[in-house]
Amino acid sequence: MFKAVTLQIGATILAALIAGAFLGLRGALSAALGGAACFLPNLLFALRLHLVTKRPDASYPVAFFVGEFFKIASTVGLLATVRLVYPDVHWLALFGGLVVALKANLFAFLVKT
User: Fold this and answer.
1) How far apart are the first and last CA of the chain?
2) Over 70: is that where the pLDDT of 19 sits?
3) 44-81 in b/e burial notation, b at 16+ Cβ within 10 A?
4) Domain count of the fold of the chain
5) Beta carbons within 8 Å of 19's beta carbon, 6+ residues apart
6) Domain containing 49: what range?
7) Which residues contact 90 (CB under 8 A, 6 or more apart)?
8) Which tens digit of pLDDT belongs to each residue from 31-48?
9) Could you give the CA distance from residue 51 to residue 29 in angstroms, rounded to a whole number?
C-alpha cells in the first residue's frame, strides 16, 4: 500500500513540474494541490490499515470500509478546501494532478520492492 502512495507522490511531483512548464507557478501549484488531495488521504488510509493489522482482535473488513469512506470524504473535503483557500486555482491543472495521482496506482504492480 505504501508503494502505491509513493508512486502517487512521484506522479504528483511530475504533474506539477509539467504544469509549471506550461502554465507557470499557478498551474504547478494547482496540479500539486490536486495530487495532494489524492495522496494525503491515501497515506492516512495506508497508515490506518497498517496499524489495524497489528491488533489481534481487529475486524479487517470493517476497518477497510470505514477507512475507504473517510478517504473519499477527505478527498472531497480537500478539494473543497483548495477552492476556498486558493481562489486563483487553475482547474485544468488541478484536475490533471488529481487524475495523474489517481492513475499512478495502476503502475504499482510494475514496481518491484
Assistant:
1) 12
2) yes
3) ebbebbeebeeeeeeeeeebeeebeeebeebbeebbee
4) 1
5) 27, 28, 30, 31, 90, 93, 96, 97
6) 2-110
7) 19, 23, 26, 27, 30
8) 999 999 999 999 999 999
9) 32
